[in-house]
Amino acid sequence: MPIMPIQILAPEVASKIAAGEVVERPSNVVKELLENSIDAGATEIRVEAREGGRRLLRVVDNGHGIPADEIPLALERHATSKLNTVDDLNHIVTFGFRGEALYSIAAVSQVTLTSRHRKQPFATTIRVEGGVVQAPARAGAPIGTTVTVENLFYNVPARQKFLRTTTTESGQIAAIIQRYALAYPERRFSFVNDGRLIFQSTGSGELRDVLIMLYGRDNAQQMVSLTAVTASSTTGLDDLALDVDFRSDAPAQSTSTTPPQTGVHVFGYVSLPSLTRANRSAIDIFVNRRYVEDRSLTHAVVQAYHTLLPVGRYPMAVIFVDIDPAQVDVNVHPQKTQVRFVEERRIFAAVQKAVRRTLISATPIPDLGVDEGGRLARATGETADLPPGWASRREAILNAGDQPHFDIVVPAPQPTGILPSFAMTATTNAPDASPTNKRTTTGVTSIPKLPPLRVVGQIGAMYIVAEGPEGLFLIDQHAAHERILYEQYMLQRANNQTGVARQHLLEPLTLHVGARLTGQVAAHLNALQHIGFEVEAFGGDTFLVRAVPAVLAGEDPLRTLEEIAATLSERRNLVGEEIEAALVKMVCKRAAIKAGQLLSDIEMQELVRQLEQCQSPRTCPHGRPTMIQLSAVELEKAFGRI
Length: 642
Ligand code: ADP
Ligand code: MG
Description:
Blueprint: H1 11-22, H2 26-39, E1 44-50, E2 56-61, H3 71-74, H4 101-107, E3 110-116, E4 123-129, E5 132-133, E6 137-139, E7 144-150, H5 157-162, H6 166-183, E8 188-193, E9 196-200, H7 207-215, H8 217-221, E10 223-225, E11 229-232, H9 236-239, E12 263-271, E13 283-287, E14 290-292, H10 295-304, E15 317-323, E16 328-329, E17 340-341, H11 344-362, H12 390-400, H13 423-426, E18 454-459, E19 463-468, E20 471-476, H14 477-494, E21 502-512, H15 515-523, H16 525-530, E22 534-537, E23 542-549, H17 557-570, H18 577-591, H19 601-612, E24 627-631, H20 632-638
Helix pairs in contact: 1-4, 2-6, 6-7, 10-11, 14-18, 14-19, 15-17, 17-18
The protein binds adenosine-5'-diphosphate and magnesium ion.
């Protein structure tokens, strides 16, 4: 390539490059427009999107508006009404200050801006296309501003390629609006997607109302208001030391609700330990009402739950940190989701302490982490506390395992009806359901994965002790049953048996999933149908449940569905069959016999027999071991015989 002389980029090139920093996808546009509306003091903000924002994005607000003569300026680069001097940068109180957003958006789309200033009797409208500003015109409109962005990236094909599906993009737009709804409960936000009202906050000023909208009433009821912690910078550090012994803390007392000038003020809501998520995505943190992505503060929240949650589970939280604007730098990145604190440690400690105190006053602290099934969390954790020799064995077992996939053509664990079973009714019409140990339907005979085992007994109402030709087996009854159910389901599916046995409900159950999860549930009604749920949209965040998988008899199907909904939204990267596999695993987990359940000899024998016939008997569908094996040789070694 010939070397070009240094030159100043043509304005249209420069503006597209600048736009790239601010505007990567439709949700970024929404964020900028929302922030302008909030900066303008709007109390009602409506967002509309079409085709995931590609075709159209519109934000309508009732803020103070823009004076007619300033309207063309609003679209210029570095044109802002929010910052005058460099000194102003040190105490930013508005979202905007770069004067870059409208300019950047207009460089990559067709923007129409209509605004009526509160002191003017008419509105002015102006249109920009490909960076070219057209002459303003008068219009009739109420006080406030409407920005319409059409055909985003119409002139940047490279960007278009990176856009995801319409559902994903509109999901991200919804997520952005929800953050601001959380941060500003006293303002009313609504989102209309492809002509449908997706959600609307009440604007009541109550954070709890926003939580109900987002997570549904049941979940919101399991979230508690933070006991406020306020620390001033002069006295704060000792009081909030990181290694403080939380358990000996005096009960927390509520302090003032207004932020002291130099202090840190932490407030918000956190979930009780009974309500958890599979990842950190339901932990939202706001600094001076600005949503931030801060690993350290997220970690402070998670740490506060230490020993209260099972391994791999995370809380839900909405945390507000109010702090003197001079103590925080928001000018770190054009998208402004990262911040830097002057005294990071102190903020961390304040958050951690506020959460911990709240939890301690709200819940008793158990001695050991115990998971939903009642199993010791430790048992699935590190190998450190296993006897010598067991660790490597456990590794081997773990690695022996399981590649969950859908083309399993294997064993039919033949249920007798003693244990809850997927196949109970569905296989009755399977012609070749023979109780033999025939391992395959493709004619390939594979080696049994487990030797025949003799049940010796049950310990701790959790583990089955069994003896095999090579030694001793300790079987986790819950994990083993999960494995059995999972393979039963997969087998049925492989044989194209549609009949996952379902139980039709006399009265449909009503499921409220909350606005955050509605889209995910609605998009997966078919997958739910496959695994035995009949669920139907009922408007808003409400669904009617008409049938549940029979295997779940005796379980609370709504809890299972809520868990499924949460997982769907947390793991949006799942596609196609992975989705169904994830759903099945959740159903299996719920349906499987629990740790803590006493089993009769017959039940244990049945369980072990079905496990013997599994394709991957040594791990549960989530990849954890179902059993620990101690070989005869290992036993002899341990007893010093060899
Ligand atoms: P910034 O927000 O960083 O100042 P923008 O490009 O987002 O830059 O906006 C430029 C200017 O346009 C703002 O400073 C403000 O004066 C005006 N403006 C934009 N949107 C609105 C709105 N919704 N209501 C009132 N004024 C607005
Ligand atoms: Mg702005």
